[in-house]
């Protein structure tokens, strides 16, 4: 029976250990893929699929990529959602007996990419894990490139999904056997992340605890503060076990798990982050046009990543907010200090990711120089911080240690412009190591002797075209053309025959060659050994460098907020402990920045939990209602981030959550209509809002019929106003201007409208919010501005006039009359009485355009005409309907 060759047997054995990954199997200068892996890779990478004899009598599918350019191919596959296992030769081919030993040295997955080519400089790339038990969730997030490790627990699926959406993981690990669980599929569908099975049983609390304690070398979960969070422990332990299996190397740069606390931060669900466009726009998912895009004046990649976390997690602790504001105020007021900070920060590389590569064992000599040059800036940066008065700036300075010895070591050891590869030599500086210098001298002297050999041999032999050359196969040689072969001395030994000449060697040349090559081989090995020693010294200071990197990120964020505040004329908000929001001449930060010189119309805001709890805002589309409401929310967010705000004056009572229900969109994939999406978001708000929350509602009830919509909108207002457990500060924009009549008697409701100036049959939006209710929606005028045909606009005005006069039944166009007269008569048979013919004829012009529900003379009709329906409560309407029903039956 045919068997595979020994090499293919080895391949299959290795592949069995990584069945869910594409195996890059090292053969010489290529990585080869076989069987289904080859078919998949050739398709995804668009490379040639070939075949190879494998000992079974038929060719095995095969494709391959060059070793020196394999990184690009690996990353392309990972970006498409695949895992790639890298299998290397782990013993010297010359010393091997039989097949060279090969092992998987790393599995590259979407969540474990370390290569900078695919990493966003100012965004984290998270690997996540999730453990579910009885509707409760434990989550863990790790950015392998920075060492950040976070954990949290949540009681509901929605809270879990919000957390996942905030971190946007590239890959999510779930317990073995749970990839098809409902919660796992929900995460996958919502996030588009790659779903991966964790190692068997590593999510169990006992096993996860063992993994965490062993890795971080501690004796108790109390070291992490996770003794009472078994699900968080399970998620973190499973994630760490997955990293150890896939990465197969030192992970000491991972920081101890940090629990994501909720009481210290404002809570923002996924709807709010999306609707307020905090980190990306709704239109193109880009950063430009978002709040983060406006605020990002950071100089370092570390600062950029931290600023994103500032935006997504504003503070809810007054002391910490004031601490940040003090620092921002000092930097805001001292232009020279801010300029000095930016100039120094501009010299700092991404220390977080650089030291992670050092610990990971993948840092090269250029990375070490970047670390050293960054650390060399710190003394000057620390000195400027210590001269500041703000307490937070001085605290940041205290986190920065002295790295003079480490900087000196790297700068003495590494040449100024080292090559990318650390295994090809030319990395270590002259004078750093005596024996290396001796080898370098021997190599240089030998090469110098060979360089003079050509001229000496030409003079000795008289062969003017004689050349000295070198290649890896034959080493050094003397090349003579065929025309001069008769002049070659007898001491020359023929080595190779060419078409146009001969190549020779001499005993002395081979001796020098041996010395040179031996020196170079020893030199390369020694240089790599010395480089690793220097890299290990840097790794020894890993914790201190990570702490300094955190300090740099903080100061970069603070100077960014100060720079934006100074450039855009923002003012420091007053942070209060009461429930009031008072904003004078507030502006929308992003819209104002986009206007490019055109003045922004500012507006005031007053909200509290008593007399100004709900601001009911009416007015036409395009008049500025949504912009106004968003700007209030963004001003609150900016204030609680510790940033100045776009207003003349702002008093901000700390808000625990901001909720938004803005815009309309379908969720077709989830089977939800626009109205259903609207109701789901509204339900989330009404279930979770508190008296310290801020709610932004835009056009509640517009996705259904008019009466249904008004009913829902009024019920929502009543719920927010009357329910003592909610009582949240609310901005409620609506086109149902009739709603203002229902809420006139509510003590906490205040009516506002957007100011519109009418000019004939058109309108001008003045963008000003007035303390009065609107009596019209100006829909037709807005439609005119949008460019609807004049015929449509004219007919709409006619219908509107008739509707406002209550003449619904006569609202039929002349064109409809013509159609009616030309329409045929239909004969309909009913199933109950097939012998009876009912003639259904179109209405004539003399008839009503709509069949009347009641005879015109019926007393119930007269009573209906006298009702003011818009002033009826739901209970009154039910009672009235019952009375009318009884009267109708009595008259029959």
From TrEMBL:
Record's keyword terms, sorted: ATP-binding, DNA damage, DNA repair, DNA-binding, Nucleotide-binding
InterPro entries xrefs: DNA_mismatch_repair_MutS, DNA_mismatch_repair_MutS-lik_N, DNA_mismatch_repair_MutS/MSH, DNA_mismatch_repair_MutS_C, DNA_mismatch_repair_MutS_clamp, DNA_mismatch_repair_MutS_core, DNA_mismatch_repair_MutS_N, DNA_mismatch_repair_MutS_sf
PROSITE patterns: DNA_MISMATCH_REPAIR_2
Keyword Protein transport on entry: no
CDD domains, per the entry: ABC_MutS1 (cd03284)
Residues the record lists as binding ATP: 619-626
Coiled coil: none
Residue span, DNA mismatch repair proteins mutS family domain: 693-709
Function: This protein is involved in the repair of mismatches in DNA. It is possible that it carries out the mismatch recognition step. This protein has a weak ATPase activity.
NCBIfam families: mutS1 (TIGR01070), PRK05399.1 (NF003810)
Family from the record: Belongs to the DNA mismatch repair MutS family.
Protein's name according to its UniProt entry: DNA mismatch repair protein MutS
Species, as recorded: Tumebacillus lacus
